[in-house]
Amino acid sequence: MLPPSLVSTYQQYKNDTDSIAGWLASTAKATGYVSDPLTQQLPKGTSTRLKGKARAEAKKKQASSSSKPAPVNKYIIKIKDFIPLAEFIASKHDISIPNSLITTLRRVIIARGGFSGMLAEKGAIADEISDVNHGYFVGVLEKVQEILKPQTNTTSTSSTGSSPKASKDKSRAGVTDDEFSNQFAGLKVYEPSEDFLNAPDIERPKVREGDNVTYEAEPPSSLEDLYVAVTLLINDINKIRSRIEWIWTNYRDGFFELAACAVTTNTAIDLARKLMEDVVPMFKDHGGLWKVLNQFHIVQVMMKGYEPFSHSPNGADNFNYDTYDIADGTYILTCRILDAFTRVVQPGAIPLYKEGMFGYYDPRSARDSKSGYQKFEEDRVLLMSFFTELMAVERGVGDYPVEDEFLRGIKELAKTKEVPFYLVFAAQIFLDIHYILRGNASRGFETLQMNLQFLDREIEEHFEFHKDLKIDNWPTSHNQMIRHLQAKIQYILGDPVYKAKTQAYHALREPVPASMEPNRILKMSPVLCGLLLYHFRSSTWEIGIRLADAWGSITYSLHLYNSLQSEKLISNCWPDMDLVWAVLGDKFFVGDTPKAPEDYFKKFSLQMGTTAAAFTSKRRKNTALTSRSGPRGIKDGIPVSSMFMNRYRHGTGQVDWTAEHIAQIVDLSLWETEGLEEEGTLMLGQVDTKKLKQKSKSIKANKFSELPPEQLIRALMFALQGEALELALPYTAMHRECWALLRAVRKQCDPLLRQMFTSKYMERETELPFVVGWIFTALWERRDTKLLAEAGVAVADFIRSDGNTVLDLLKSIGVPVVFGGEEVV
Questions:
Q1: HSE-CB for 6 with a 13 A CA cutoff
Q2: pTM of the predicted model, to two decimals?
């Protein structure tokens, strides 16, 4: 069950209504009320009463399956029965009415009450609202409140209907964070009351103890009910939309990284789709998505004093484009473009967009100065041209590595010829991102292309380095996996979507237009670029960690580097290792970082999976240096980013994310924010180790479970941003650098090593990490620092010439690193 604050606003409203129905029915039944709705209505999925032999057989089956939970009985309470139930309860003068019932009644009345008046006042679709339904539900609730209020536990309710806890929580949370400057945040198609918005903190009335029946209020069916639901839903998803705009504004300004932005954005659309599930089923009874959004838009236009109908400059329709800004918040124009697209989708064919069909998009132009119709033209050109790209993936590319919600929705549209609401939302987000980035929209592709070309070269470097250097615990299957990844990288660089469109033109016996530019889908979609970047970075991250663990290169080089620093035997820093150490924290060492000679050896032995006796000069011949358990690798990292690997790497992860899932994922983060955005003091830093240990011991619910979806998205963005550098680090390059360092150390220390431990100290190059062990053995067993000092000479020389390799590589792929406030060049 979702934490209350993570439930959609409409679901809160429905929970309020159901709790009123449940309390009325349960209380009345417990005090002797007899009526068909309470005694004879069958739960959903049950059959009529059995008799005779059939009843006996049923009892036997029930006894044999007694361990299974009993099915939940569900009763639907009709709205017309609310008043009779209330009157019956009121006649029992010994029944005390809980204040939570009156508070909940009042909250629903206020949340709902304004709709009837607005619809009537503006004459909005009055012929479709029957006299019976118009304002009927509110009247019923008001009558129930009037009947029962005299018998409440206390009549001293607060003026807002909020409990002290709610007031306290609201004061603590504040509203400034939720009111980030944004054009969508200002759009309030209808603002629910504070009582209603505070609902999660207010206790709802409960059914009588021992009553195991689930009660629900009669499902809404009137247009007014639909208007309530759509209004609350639009308010919810516009908050999510606003947070997504915040993400891409910060990306544009250089604060957020592409892959983190893309994963967070697509997750935000997932959450919006989840919120829609409460309301979308109601659309079918009122003409479907297009008709519902159109009516909703008309009401909004009339409420703001505009005429809903006019004539477009070309006379093609009667939409009043002067109301574009209102339409932007009701999703009607985006829905309209998608609806038009369904009519050109033919089975099995890629609908090829002809340049200039709807004009041209000029990102250099000033959107703010455009008329409503000109803005709509931009929307249409961007969407209609991009539909071809997405359909090319759907119809011509069977193995595209990633899928965002826009592509997923287009695939659903292609199969059903219907437009799902989440696709409308995803398409609107696509437009929003373009209008934030304008001429910089293709920057995502440039970043992706640069990174994929780098990874392709990096894989070649890896195979060249290990051409003659092999170990048993790096099997051939690992290399095959790397080659498969390289082939996939080259596949994307080769632009399979362009090839699919080319084949479509050939099938039509038409020449490929000269205007059909390569990689258009990626140039138009920063989200797909970011998801692909995540896909390939997460794959190479895992390969790099496995490689470092198999060879011991990074870990044992760090052990040596740490000891040299602690003993003050080197004066220069190793920037690459300092970076890796800072990013991975204490994942290298077993326990705390060693700071004394005896600890260097012990920690190293534990890391290697050996005993101290393995490195003694008196060890027996052929004594194994490693234990059966093997060495300990680098501890798992990127806890938040790794939770999305199944979906965006393997295509097997869930897509039905709920806010509860995201709250649990964000709670894994090893990063936290300090300061305030509003004051320009916000900073992102790693969680203190002591805090982390306390956090792991805590059994309390995570703090993110109290956040509404739009704030949860913010927390996820920061969590992924914190892990971005760790995910981007080229561990394969760091492995080669560390191996080169170990070679230099062995060369410098070889004479002393032979003198102390004979020539048998290392027989194969694959044993290079053991050189560090022998150096620590001499320090621990003989109290001899000469070997460590010689190693310091080698390390210092190496750092001067090769200590910035990884940092240079990161800079080359657009990931600059800052140490102490200064960028490392």
A1: 20
A2: 0.85
